Amino acid sequence: MNLNSIINSVTLLFLLSFLSCNQKQNNSSKKEKTKIHYDGSWQALQKMPVPAWFDDGKIGLFIHWGPYSAIGYKKGGRGYAEHVPKQLYKNKSHYYPYMQERWGATPPEFGYKDIIPEFTAANWNPEEWASLFKEVGVTYVVFTAEHHDGFSNWDSKINPWNSVKMGPKRDLVGDLGEAVRKQGLKYAPSYHRERHTGFFAEEQYNVHSIPRADIAEEIKRVPKAATLYGPFSFSKKFTDDYVARWKEIQDKYHPDFLWIDDVPVFTRDGNNPKTGFKPEIQYFYDEVKGMITDFMNNGIDRQQAVYVNNKGANRNWPDGVGCLEKDNLKLKVVGPKWQSCTTFGTSFGYLENDKYKSVKAIITEMVEVISRNGNFLVNIGPKADGTIPQEQMKRLQEMGNWLKINGDAIYGTRYWKENHQENGHLAFTTKDKTLFAIALEKPTQPFIIEATKDWTKNNVKQIALLGSKERINWKITKEGLQITPPSNLGKTKYAWAFKIDTDFIQHKPNAIQTDADKALKGTKKVDLEGF
User: Fold this and answer.
1) pLDDT digits (tens, 9 = 90+) for 258-297
2) How far is the CA of 172 from the CAs of 7, 177, 228, 268, in angstroms?
3) Among the four 257, 281, 414, 487, which has the fewest Cβ within 10 Å?
């Protein structure tokens, strides 16, 4: 090879290398351009998709656990025990004698801050919790990172009142997140601080308030308590701190879901999303919009499918921004993607001798929620030491036993054209060409699925009862598909899922009520806080 040939060869190699690098850069630029970020507007956020893990997972577990769990008491024996910290000061005539008898002192000598050492987590094993949650069929976990009381359950550099510096002396959010993710579960530290300014204040849902007299005296005696009980007004400082605390959670634990409680001040004290907010609330509203935007964009950058909720009868955000949600919600129709945070009893936080729903009622509620395009986020309230109360454990395990048999009718399903049939007390879910008819009362007599009256015999391939090996007799009548339940209903208790394989897709997307106001119409507001 002569010198010219060598030069030509080297030149060719250089050109090929240059073109290759340039092509890689172009491909990289194209990939970057395909990352579509949210622009900070509600209109953009309204287009957020429902992640497959959420739409398919169906079953979540909520956990209310904090210093309030050390109280475990509420006047009347029912209602939201996690709200008792404010009731201690609000209803002095009842709670001060109770505190005197139990702790030998009352505010301002002894207050909520002094109960924190009793929140120990002494018997808590996050791996055991996570294993239990997986075993009972949970697919995601929502854990209170901070409730309205101002105590943070994570290793916070912002809030000195946190679970690492006092109480359990552990990073509860971090330890639980690591354990549940090892089980393949999604994780969402929940954030409830939006109501903190009024929690220990004279006025609960006002823009500006003042501390209750004994709270003010506690702070005077122990100045550091100001950062637990206060502040007592919405301000730029409060909002910036609010966003910073969530950002700390986001950066440390990479949540799969941004769960925020409802924000009553959006519709109280002269504020209204339609007519306008006071300046302090407008700033809060705008900054939280930015917080949600940052969370969603962070998910895109991390290639993590994330989602948010939109809580309250008066929703926090414009409809379409996250899933519709309310405490113990049960729509009567198929609604836009929604979630019911549901209690086993009357309280979310631990309440000794709470009044619990029957297992049958819980299974029925779960099936009806899911049949109407909802997710079932069922709550437990552990004791201060990390023990799950026996009555709650029993219901978790019974729910898990049912799901082990009937999970095919729940996970990965979608709604049908009908969600309920009174005759036979039936609920319905679908999966591709399969229709599940779930009898919520023990099926002892033949029943007809009325919405199948246009079916022919050829439409039905086979029918089975989940949890049973018995042959299912069926026939097509002029009224619809008639199913005769077997005398032996198999292993299932509380609800019986008949799996009907057909020759056409069963999901009916247009069966949904897309208007959230209309979907919520007729549902009861379940709020036991005042009891």
Assistant:
1) 999 999 999 999 999 999 999 999 999 999 999 999 999 9
2) 66, 8, 18, 34
3) 487
